[in-house]
Design goal:
With 434 residues, the chain is of the alpha/beta class. The chain has helices at 5-21, 27-30, 52-60, 76-87, 99-103, 120-129, 144-157, 171-181, 217-221, 247-251, 253-264, 357-371, 381-400, 416-419; strands at 42-47, 66-72, 94-96, 110-113, 133-136, 161-163, 188-197, 271-277, 289-295, 300-307, 318-324, 327-332, 335-340, 348-352, 404-407, 412-413. Helix 6 (120-129) runs parallel beside helix 7 (144-157).
Length: 434
């Protein structure tokens, strides 16, 4: 009989407890089946490796003592390509098209989940249940209910779960928020958040077809409704359809709205209203042009996005602007600055970004896997849930066409149509965790 590394460590802990030494084991240790020392190798696997999942995995592998042992993707073409790229670096991995087989491997310590959004909830919850730590791409869930379910799964199984909102690990973003919290901007009545992206070329109308050779399309659909294969709904284009994602609002919105919430120390909004259109893309669900207003009482957060432009507010493609009575702080991925209002304060020239947020975020994930100090995570599941829910609220207001009021205590809207969109129905025999 063979014994896995995990089982050995767990059985050793049991022997210690049986010897009457459990009282000297810190509670933060005993809650987990293993604890890594700096010398321990952390074995990682990645699920969904065509886009950000691959970038995330490579960032994780930059940390010493981390080894990739397995890859999973429903597209064998992608799977073979990535395995070959790792092999060229001297890394030989197991490959599989079914993530459930990967989660059964007791020698895998952590997983990176980079699939389309509609798979995040199931995979994260099942990975936690299987005893894995998780790096999950944003947005964490494809509905408000999924976000709640994912938080519950992490809290139930006490795993390390880092959400891929890597801006949380960048110094210039933290410095900008520290300045906002200093009060120097004066009273902030409005936070503008925007993305005017020079991508999203209009999708040409394509007929349904057979899935490409090597693609397990039924597995790709998972809990989403059964539909014929169409290239416009596959790989990167999935983001435009409610079945799988939430458009730009949940793609970029979770990155940028996150810092609006952090800067204002805000929780849930009182009301949300939204308006949008499909000015460039036709035959999709999510709007390519959209404005959303979140009311918080004594201030508002306003979101805007449009594709095909490349230059937006303050001549920036994307950003967050805190408009105060003394001045305005503007921050994006390039840096931050302060523009005074009528000489009421000193200007702050552009403070440029000087680090790699994704690499730092992956490093933080690995460090917390070793320390088991969940409070040290830069983007724990609770943070990912808060902003993903906010983004979902914007989409719900757009889809209903109503201004919707949110009851935080009851966890629902005052609008029946909006409440129907809190949870997505699962299909093909799948059930939402918890």
């Amino acid at each position: 009989m063979t014994t896995s590394r995990r089982e050995f460590i767990s059985s050793t802990s049991a022997l210690i407890a049986g010897a009457g030494l459990s009282s000297v084991i810190p509670s933060s240790l005993s809650a987990y089946p293993h604890r890594f020392s700096a010398a321990d190798t952390i074995r990682v696997a990645a699920i969904g490796i065509n886009g950000m999942g691959w970038a995330d995995l490579n960032a994780v592998l930059k940390n010493p003592g981390v080894e990739c042992v397995a890859l999973c993707d429903v597209d064998k073409n992608v799977l073979d390509k990535r395995a070959a790229e790792l092999l060229a670096k001297g890394i030989k991995v197991k490959i599989d098209g079914d993530y459930r087989k990967l989660l059964e491997d007791k020698d895998i310590d952590a997983v990176v989940i980079g699939t389309p959004d509609h798979w995040h909830c199931l995979m994260m919850a099942e990975a936690c249940e299987a005893g894995k730590d998780v790096y999950v791409e944003k947005p964490i869930g494809n509905s408000i209910a999924e976000c709640r379910s994912m938080v519950a799964a992490q809290e139930r199984y006490k795993r390390v779960v880092q959400v891929g909102q890597w801006q949380r690990s960048q110094k210039h973003f933290r410095d900008a928020i520290e300045f906002v919290h200093s009060g120097k901007l004066g009273k902030i009545g409005l936070v503008k958040v925007w993305g005017y992206f020079n991508y999203g070329t209009p999708l040409a109308s394509l007929p349904d077809s057979a899935a490409p050779a090597g693609v397990d399309y039924n597995m790709w659909l998972g809990p989403a409704p059964k539909r014929p294969f169409n290239a416009n709904r596959f790989h990167g284009n999935f983001r435009w359809y409610w079945d799988y994602a939430g458009g730009i609002m949940t793609d970029w919105g979770v990155h940028l709205l996150d810092y609006a919430l952090l800067g204002m120390k805000a929780g849930a909004p009182k009301s949300v209203m939204a308006s949008g259109s499909k000015a460039f893309n036709f035959g999709v669900d999510a709007p390519d042009t959209m404005t959303t207003v979140y009311e918080f009482g004594d201030f508002n957060i306003q979101w805007e996005h449009v594709i095909g432009y490349g230059a937006g507010i303050y001549n920036r493609e994307h950003g967050i602007a805190f408009l105060g009575s003394n001045g305005t702080l503007i921050v994006d991925r390039k840096g931050w600055e302060v523009v005074p209002q009528a000489k009421k304060m000193e200007a702050v020239t552009l403070q440029q970004s000087s680090d790699n947020g994704l690499d730092l975020h992956a490093k933080n994930f690995i460090e917390v896997i070793r320390s088991r100090k969940l409070e040290d995570l830069h983007a724990p599941i609770q943070i990912g849930s808060n902003v993903a829910i906010l983004s979902q609220m914007g989409n719900i207001a757009y889809r209903t066409g109503n201004k919707v009021n949110w009851n935080e205590e009851k966890g629902k809207f005052d609008d029946a149509a909006a409440n129907k969109l809190i949870e997505k129905e699962y299909h093909n025999g799948y059930k939402m965790p918890g």
